[in-house]
Structures are given as C-alpha cells and as structure tokens.
Design a protein that fits this description.
The complex is a heterotrimer of chains A (about 350), B (about 250) and C (about 240). Chain A has about 350 residues and is α+β, with helices and mostly antiparallel strands. Chain A has helices spanning about 35-45, 65-70, 85-100, 105-110, 125-140, 155-175, 185-190, 210, 325-330; strands at about 1-10, 15-20, 25-30, 50-55, 60, 70-75, 145-150, 180, 195-200, 200-210, 225-240, 245-250, 250-255, 265-270, 275-280, 290-300, 305-315, 315-325, 335-340, 350. Chain A folds into two domains: about 1-210, 3-Layer(aba) Sandwich (Rossmann fold); about 225-350, RNA polymerase II/Efflux pump adaptor protein, barrel-sandwich hybrid domain (OB fold (Dihydrolipoamide Acetyltransferase, E2P)), CATH 2.40.50. Chain A is about 25% helix and about 35% strand. In chain A, strand 11 and strand 12 form a beta hairpin. Chain A is globular. Chain B has two domains: about 1-100 and about 215-245, Periplasmic binding protein-like II (D-Maltodextrin-Binding Protein, domain 2, 3-Layer(aba) Sandwich); about 105-210, D-Maltodextrin-Binding Protein, domain 2, CATH 3.40.190.10. In chain B, helix 2 (about 30-45) runs antiparallel to helix 11 (about 235-245) and helix 3 runs parallel beside helix 4 (about 80-85). Classes of the chains: A alpha+beta (about 350), B alpha/beta (about 250), C mainly alpha (about 240). At the B-C interface, helix 1, helix 2 and strand 2 of B face helix 2 and helix 9 of C.
Chain lengths: ~350, ~250, ~240
C-alpha cells in the first residue's frame, strides 16, 4: 500500500492532497496541467519539501529520507538525460549508485528496446528514444517506487504509440509500484490500476480505474471521451466468424478477432456514447454484445440534454451516455435491470502484458 | 583528461632550489650599477653567486623587518640602518660605512643653467613659471630627506615645497628630469654620472645636509661566512675603485 | 629546473632573465594549482548554496579585485609574515616561511587571481541546468558525487577558461607580489618584477624589452589557448 498526504502552499497556490493505493500496480495521477501533479511527484521524490508531508510505502515511512537515499526513481517530463554522457553511461549512472536489485542492465535494455542506442549521445536521440532511455535510467537505479511525470507529453502521437507498449510491458514485468502523472485519459486507461483524480490542488477522488471510469459523479464522466474499462482474459478465437471472445468475470465480450493467444490479459475500453441500452431483448440487430446489467446511478450532464448511466455488469462496470429523453422513456433508475448493447467494433482493446 | 595532464605538469614543477651559499644583497637603488660591477668582480674571483634586490632603502628595511631572507643590507642612509639595529636584526659588529655621496641639482645637459646654491639662489628661476623640482619623496626616500634638509638650511623650503614633484625613489626623480617632465631635480651625484643626457647644475655644500653615507651590515638571521666575506670585499681597494668610478665618495 | 632546461629559447635571454621567466611560470602554475580546488568549492557554494553569510563570502572573495594590489600584499604580510598570526604559526609548527619566498609569491598570485577563477567557474556552474543535478539526485548521487559527475564536467569549459585566465593573470601580477614576496632574483622576482627592476637600472631597457617580449608571447599564447578551449570549440 502507498499512502501519501501533503499540504503545501506557495505563490498563492494551496495544495492539500492525500491518497492511498494498493501496490504493486500503476497509480495514475490524472488531472489538467497545473493541478499539482508535478508538485506531488517532486514531494514524493524529495525534491520538494512541503510544509506537511507523509509518505509510506508498504509500511515504510519515506518522507524523512533525502532524495538520494529514498529509492524513488523519477522519469521527468523532459527526460533530463545527462548531455555529456553516452546512453550507456546514462543508464549506468543509477545502476552504480542504486545498488544491486532485480533490474539488470541487459534486461532493461531489452525491455525498452534501446540496445542500438547505447553508444550515442542524448542529443542524437529522437524524443521517443530519449524518454525510453530516461525510463531505463530510472529503472536501473532499482527504485522501490518509480515516478513518471507526463513522460509522453512532450511527444507527438506517433512517438506516444511507440512508447506506450513498452510502458504496458513495464507494468506487468516490474513488481514495483509506478506513479504515473498524465492529463491524457487514453494513457491512463491503458496503464493505470488505480486512478487518483486531481484538480486545483485537491484529490477529487481515488480508487480502482475500472470503478472510477464508470462513476457518474466525477468530472471524468462529463468528458466527450468518457468510457468504462473492463479487464478480462482472451478466452477463445472464432476464426470462421472473425471474432475473439474475451471473458470478463461472468460475461463474454466479443471483439473483432485479435492476435493475442487465449489466456492473455487484456483491458477493454468501451466509450460511453457507444453503449446502447434496452429494457427488452432486441431482435434482428447487428450488435454482437448484449450484456445483462443493472443501473447503479443516473445523472444529467451540464446542459441537461444527456443522461449518464452507471452500469454494473457480471464482470465489471461501464458507463453509458444516452439522451435524457431515452432515459425517461426507459425509466432508468438505480436498480433497474437493463441490457447493454455494445458493438464489437466500438471496443478498444489493449494487451495487459 | 585535460585536468589530469595539468596536474601532472604541476607535480613535475621543481620548487626553486638555491645554492646554500648564494648571497642575497638588499641594496639602495642608487647603488645599482656600482654593485652589479662589483658583484661581477667578486664572482670572477670564484666566489659564490650574489643576487640583488634594488629598491628604496625604506622598502628594503621594511621587508627585512618582516623577515625577508637578505644576507646583506646596504642602506642609502643611517636612519633605516638604525631602525633595523633597534630591532636587533643586524650583526652589530659587521656594520660599517661603505661609501659617501654628494647631493646635486640635475638638469638636462642641453641648455644647462648653472644653479647657485647658497644665499640668493636662482633655483626657482631655473624651474620657470610652472616647472616642478623632481625629488625623492621627502617623507621616506633618503635623497628626498637630504634635499629637504638642504633646502631648509638655505631658506628655500617655504617656497620650494610647493613646487616639488616627489617621486617614489631617487631613480624615479632622475627619470622625471630625463624625460623632460621636470626641468630640474635634486639627486645624488652618482645618479647624474650614469645618465649621459643629464648634467650637474650645482652641488649642495656638504654642510647644508647630514653627511650622505651608505652603511652596510650583515643581517643576523642570515649571517653566513660568504656574506661576511662579501662585505669585507666591498671595503677592498678594487671594490672602492668601482664605487669611485660611479661617482661615489669615500665615507 | 631540468624540465625547463630542455626548452631552447628562440632568442637570447641571459641566465638571470631565463630564471625570471621560469620562476614566473612556476609561480603561476602553483598559484593556479592550489587555488583551483578552493576556487571550485567557493564557486559552487556561491552558485548553488543558500546559506547565511553567502554575501559576505562573495565580498571577501572579490576583495583582492577591488583593493589596490599593494594593500592585498600588505594584508598578506600582516597575516602570513613572520610576525603575523598564521605566518608565525606556520614557521613555528612546520618551519614554513611564506613571506619573501617563492611559495609566498605563489600565494600572492593565488589570492589575486582567486576572484577571477571563482567568477569564471561560478558563471559556468550557474549555466548548468540544476534539473540535471536533481535527476542525478534521484538516481542516488550525493552532493560531492553530483558535483564531480554532473556539474563539473558540464562546467568544464568554464573551469578550463578559469585555469588559463588565472595562469595568464598570475604571470602579470605585480603589486601584491612585490609587497608580500619582495623582488629577489631567483626567488621571488617574477617577470613583471624583473622588467620593473630592469627599467630602474640605467641601461636596462634592452633587458626590459626582451622580457616584455616574453610577456607578450605568454599573454598571446594564453589568449589563443583560452580561445581554443572555449565552449564553442569543445561542443
């Protein structure tokens, strides 16, 4: 368990934040720029000394340790590779000082795919390569906790897509907790286990990603790209129908056939506006997934034209966005059983490891 | 890498090692040429090397008082030698008067106007309406102190003191005249001797100032046999001949 | 002296003149060599440190730059002279004499060039991104480690410039040296002092001219070297 609480005040900004999250796993600090994510991370690394600060990781208090002895690795937004050292020396910098640990040089190099870059200087690297090296450098110091502060925000979409798989691999291979700050919902839903929502120096809510993304009472639900996340395992492939069945708890969710072999962990993201609700079984319809669910909560959006519906399924929770008119026609209210209709084509999937 | 090379070079640097019997002589600046000639004579006789530091006597005496490693001190006046004697810095028995000197008014040879020194002196007329009289600083340079005594004795001090160009040493005063910065100056007779472009416009009568004597002594803290030998050599006839050659007088 | 004797002069200098040149080079090397580590520490303190008395330290370091060199030399004499507190202790405890010795000339030069070196190093340390030092910190590097592996290498060109500048300035140091170390040929008579003495001697212009030529060559050499080592070229 990671427990952090902080109170800090500077230049008219007041931060009061506290959260706890299970470890290991990826803890995402999600919020707009300037919400206080970086200050929180700097405090966790020891680079910022807040007026009040507590930090406990698996029962060990860390707040009094100096940054160099805290064992907290940090991947900065801007990489901060040492310009006068080769990639190899950058990677070894932490390795030589962090002491022995489970992360080995060759493993980290292979994991991040940076073997071909070892002899180069940082200024000859692309932005994506630089961030991968920065991650490797932090990993090789064998930290007890890894902080990543918007590591992809300085990169364009193509570079992000290049790195995200490495990060996903990292979270499954590493046994250390990762705190990942981001303002990109896409990154967060692909990587996080625990979601900590931060706004204006406060923690708005914190909890498991799959629960948080299905709640209607959070600002998250109002976003255009709001959507629930289901975690499942590849069950079987049906090549003749071009489908793959993914088991999420008691439910099966069908998606267009994927390459991952059965047994692979995947997370599915279902955009709220793509979920159709029905109170009786429809016939003659193209939708592949018809899942039984209960309404947990209903809320209206700011304009009052749309209704946000939180659903509980057999193996997770989803969010649906329908018109207010539809919600009234179906008399959607907490506890009401409904059918959630999800086009297989609307489901984004990502491999967990 | 560059640093390592640099420090390696640093380590290779030998510290100044000196032959133990080298004689360091602190001598008044006015003795420069004569002393160098005598040192040449001395070393030609197979004697240990002599090195000189020529400065104003006051500067040298201060340095010796602060521990400067001089074996021999030759002062241009008694005052600074007395000062060191009071500090028990001298080998008392070694103190003696080496040479004497005369005090003169110097002018450029070209257009030299003789100066009458005594009653009705034309010294100020020689300076012209705004020219200054170059002297060693009367506050501490011996030549300047003698100049003040002489001017006072002749009743010229009141008017002349406003027209002085005090210099840091007697050589510097000489240079002012040589460069034409001052139309005349008061220096030692020996100084004029070594400057071909300058001539003596008048000699102060010996009774107008304290006798100009150059005392010499071995310093107690650096009292070596070679130093005592060198001081003895300064009193020999060949050395005295060199002093005479450069315009010094018998003490 | 063997190291220098292997160098043949392209123009004739007398033994005494050569000795003044060698002495100057040696004194400057010692001034820089012993001053540099201290200058680096002080520069780091001034560039990165936040402590009470920082302003005072800064002022103290810059004092020799503001004071007349003669005053600096005299203050050194008061502190390190045989009667000074430090000088008396050094003499009694170690038999070391600084005033009027070659080491003293090096000390005087070192004190005079200290502000120049601190300034050059400080500027280049301040140009090093402190966020890189933070990064090193999270990787487990304590402050000495960070200084040696991050700050110093990145400030390297500035440190080299400080060395060259300090060395060249040392060669020209006059007032403090003549006051603290006197003007003794072969011991403390550095190049500028030898030139000064030559000018004080009747007929010494030729000697002064030759030595002045050496000074010009050394200064130009220093400038060329400083240019060669400038950050622009090393990048």
């Amino acid at each position: 368990m990671l427990r952090v609480s902080l109170e800090h005040r500077f230049a008219g900004v007041s931060l009061t934040m506290a959260f706890e999250a299970p470890t290991p796993g990826v803890i995402a600090l999600f919020g707009p720029s300037g919400a206080g994510k970086t200050s929180l991370m700097n405090a966790m690394a020891g680079l910022l000394r807040p007026h009040r600060f507590r930090m406990e990781l698996d029962g060990v208090p860390l707040e009094r340790r100096r940054p160099e002895y805290r064992g907290v690795g940090y991947v900065f937004q801007d990489g901060r590779l040492f310009p006068h050292m080769s990639v190899r020396d950058n990677l070894r910098y932490g390795l030589r000082r962090g002491g022995a640990g489970p992360v080995k040089f060759d493993d980290a190099v292979a994991l991040l795919g940076i073997g071909a870059l070892l002899g180069r200087r940082p200024r000859h690297l692309s932005g994506g390569e630089r961030q991968r090296v920065a991650i490797g450098r932090a990993l090789l110091s064998n930290p007890r906790l890894l902080l990543m502060d918007e590591p992809l925000s300085a990169l364009d979409q193509a570079r992000r897509d290049e790195i995200l798989p490495y990060l996903a691999r990292l979270r499954s291979v590493l046994s250390i907790p990762i705190v990942y700050a981001s303002h990109s919902l896409d990154e967060v839903t692909r990587l996080a286990d625990t979601l900590v929502l931060i706004e204006a120096g406060r923690v708005v809510a914190a909890g498991p990603l799959t629960e948080m993304t299905a709640r209607v009472d959070l600002p998250l639900a109002l976003r255009e790209d709001a959507g629930g996340v289901l975690r499942g395992v590849v069950n079987s492939h049906l090549p003749e129908r071009g489908l793959t069945a993914i088991s999420c708890g008691a439910d099966f969710v069908w998606v267009p056939q994927i390459t991952a072999p059965p047994g692979t962990g995947v997370r599915l993201r279902v955009p709220a506006r793509e979920v159709i609700l029905a109170v009786e079984s429809p016939r003659g319809i193209s939708v592949t997934n018809i899942l039984q669910a209960h309404v947990v909560a209903v809320a209206e959006d700011a304009a009052g034209h749309a209704a946000l519906v939180s659903l509980e399924l057999g193996g997770g929770a989803l969010l649906a966005r329908v018109t207010r008119d539809a919600a009234e026609r179906l008399r959607l209210a907490p506890g009401r059983p409904v059918l959630a209709l999800i086009k297989a084509m609307s489901v984004d999937w990502h491999q967990e490891d | 890498m560059i640093f390592r090379v640099f420090f390696a070079c640093l380590l290779l640097l030998p510290f100044g090692a000196r032959a133990a019997d080298t004689i360091t002589v602190f001598a008044a600046a006015s003795l420069t040429n004569a002393m160098q000639d005598i040192a040449t004579l001395w070393m030609a006789g197979g004697h240990p090397k002599v090195v000189f530091s020529f400065e104003s006597s006051g500067t040298l005496a201060q340095q010796i008082a602060h521990g400067a490693p001089a074996n021999v001190f030759v002062s241009a006046d008694e005052k600074w030698m007395d000062d060191l004697a009071k500090r028990h810095a001298l080998l008392a028995a070694s103190r003696s008067d080496l040479v004497g000197n005369s005090l003169v008014v110097v002018e450029p040879k070209q257009g030299l106007k003789p100066v009458k020194l005594g009653a009705g002196s034309n010294l100020l007329a020689v300076l012209g309406p705004d020219g200054r009289l170059a002297v060693g600083d009367p506050a501490h340079v011996p030549a300047g102190i003698y100049a003040r005594q002489a001017l006072q004795k002749m009743g010229l001090w009141e008017v002349a003191s406003a027209r002085l160009a005090p210099a840091d040493s007697v050589r510097a005063a000489l240079r002012l005249v040589e460069l034409g910065e001052a139309p005349a100056g008061i220096v030692y007779g020996t100084d004029v001797k070594v400057t071909p472009s300058l001539g003596i416009a008048g000699i102060f009568p010996p009774d107008t100032h304290d006798p100009i004597r150059y005392p010499v002594a071995v310093l107690k803290a650096h009292n070596t046999a070679a130093a005592r030998d060198f001081v003895a050599f300064l009193h020999t006839q060949p050395a005295q001949d060199v002093f005479l050659h450069w315009g010094f007088t018998a003490p | 002296m063997g190291f220098y004797r292997t160098v043949t002069w392209p123009w004739p200098l007398s033994g005494d003149e050569q000795e003044a040149v060698y002495l100057s080079l040696r004194v400057a090397a010692r001034a820089v060599g012993f001053g540099l580590p201290l200058a680096m520490i002080v520069a780091l303190l001034l560039a990165r440190g936040r402590f009470p008395g920082r302003f005072l330290l800064n002022a103290l370091v810059h004092l020799p730059l503001m004071l007349p060199p003669v005053v600096t030399g005299w203050l050194l004499l008061l502190v390190f002279g045989v009667e000074g507190p430090v000088g008396a202790w050094l003499a009694a405890r170690f038999g070391v004499h600084l005033a009027f010795t070659e080491s003293g000339a090096a000390l005087a030069c070192g004190v005079m060039i200290f502000p120049l070196m601190v300034r050059a190093i400080r500027l280049s340390v301040e140009a090093v991104d402190p966020r890189l030092e933070q990064a090193a910190r999270t990787l487990g590097a304590h402050w000495v480690d960070r200084f040696l592996t991050i700050t110093l290498p990145l400030a390297g060109p500035g440190v080299l410039a400080a060395v060259v500048m300090g060395y060249t300035a040392s060669l020209g140091e006059f007032g403090a040296v003549i006051t603290f170390a006197a003007n003794i040929p072969g011991q403390t008579q550095t190049l500028p002092l030898a030139i000064f003495s030559a000018l004080e001697t009747q007929g010494g212009e030729a000697v002064a001219g030759r030595l002045a030529l050496v000074s010009v060559f050394l200064a130009v050499g220093g400038l060329v070297l400083a240019e060669f080592l400038s950050p622009r070229r090393l990048k």
